[in-house]
Structures are given as structure tokens and as C-alpha cells.
Amino acid sequence: MTMRIQPSILSADFVNFESEFSTISAADGIHVDVMDGHFVPNMTFGLGMVKRMQEISSLPLDVHLMIENPEHWAVLYAGTGVFSTTIHFEASSDPVATAKAIRATGSRAGLSIKPNTPVSEIKDLLEHFDQVLVMSVEPGFGGQAFMPAALEKISTLRKLVDSKNLSTWIQVDGGIDLATIALAASAGADTFVAGSSVFNSADRNSMIDQLRSTAQSAVPSF
Question: Phi and psi at residue 12, in whole multiples of 5°?
Fold first, then answer.
């Protein structure tokens, strides 16, 4: 199983993204949290900023929309050329139609669930999405502690994805460090959003490599 590390720029220097991106070249992608101050109690970047990030980044951008009305906005963000565009199940009135619209732009479609949303709510939607993001913290702010309850959700998702013969990535975001990434990988996650643990490191690329290696070592062998 391939392990992917996508540092979250929520922990980066917001006024120096070009230089910040250059310090994480070992990553598999860059996780971009878009917040509108309504769906979550914080605000970050808008469409214009993401478009500019796409222009300067040599790594794929994984855009996580923590916003209301994703039916309108998701296709606009996807249309900037980003690698993947993730919407929240809790914010979407028609996740399947939105996934189709995202995919039509060439972007991968992702679906995220908050800590209180059970996997059973999305189990019939999996084939319409390229990745599922399990939030292991309440979305809105970086630097929070990993919620262990996410592990059961990851495990349930892994069983569902495998039983349906899907290639859906299982992504986890929130409190990921060298200890929690091993737990999440052993539960079945393969894609990891790490913010503080990467950007607070003296050698960010070394930390990315350590996280990936730790996750790979934790994968159960069958």
C-alpha cells in the first residue's frame, strides 16, 4: 500500500507560500484548507489565492473545502487545475452530483466527514469519490490533538473500500505526528495530512520522510 504525506499549509506562513512550498518538496501533495467562517468558525483562503497557489506549486494541491454551498463553489476550485477537491458531506445537499461536476474538470473528488458523522452515512456514496477524508479533529483550526475515535471509522472505511474493490484513498487529517500516523496507518489509512508536525520541524523534508516511513512500517501484512 502506498503511503502519501500531504502537509497542511494551515500551519505555514501565510504571507510566504512560495518559500514555504519549497521546504516541503519531499511531500506527495499540499493540503489546502479553504474555510468560509460559516461552516467552520475560521476563515482562510479564497478562490483567487488557491488559483495563485496552483500557479506557483510544483506539488499537487489537495483542496479541502470547509465551506457552505459546495454545490456552487467546488467546481470553481476544481477548475483551477488542482489535483483534488474535497467537499464536506455535512455541507452538501447533493454530494453525488457535486462529485460528478468535480471529476468533469479533471480533478479528483473527495468527501470529508466530521468527527460526529458515522461512516454509515456515506457508505453508499464511496464509488462516486476518489478519496474519503476522516477528520480526526473538529475542523477549523490546526494544532489540535488526534481523536482516537477516528481509528474505528478508518478501519470501517478500509473494510468497505476493500469489499467493494474500490481504489478510494482513505485520508486522515488532524493531530498527525509520528505516533498517531502509525495508529492511523495500521487502521487502514493511506493518505495523511500533517500540519504542525511538519511545519514546526527544523528539517521539514526529513520529517515528511519519517512520517511516510513510519506509516509504511505500520501497515498490517496479510
Answer: -90, 175
How far is 130 from 119, CA to CA, in rounded Å? Answer: 16
Closest to 98 (Cα-Cα) out of 59, 107, 24: 107
Range of 36's domain?
5-9+13-218
The CATH number of residue 41's host domain is: 3.20.20.70
Provide the 3-class DSSP secondary structure of residue 39: coil
Tens digit of each residue's pLDDT (9 = 90 or more) over 71-95: 999 999 999 999 999 999 999 999 9
> Can you tell me the distance from the alpha carbon of 201 to that of 197, in angstroms, rounded to the nearest whole number?
6
Residue 28 near residue 22 (C-beta atoms within 8 A): no
Location of C-alpha cell 484548507: 33
Q: How many domains does the chain have?
A: 1
- Bridge partners for 193 per DSSP: 6, 173
Question: Which sequence positions are flagged as catalytic?
Answer: 33, 173
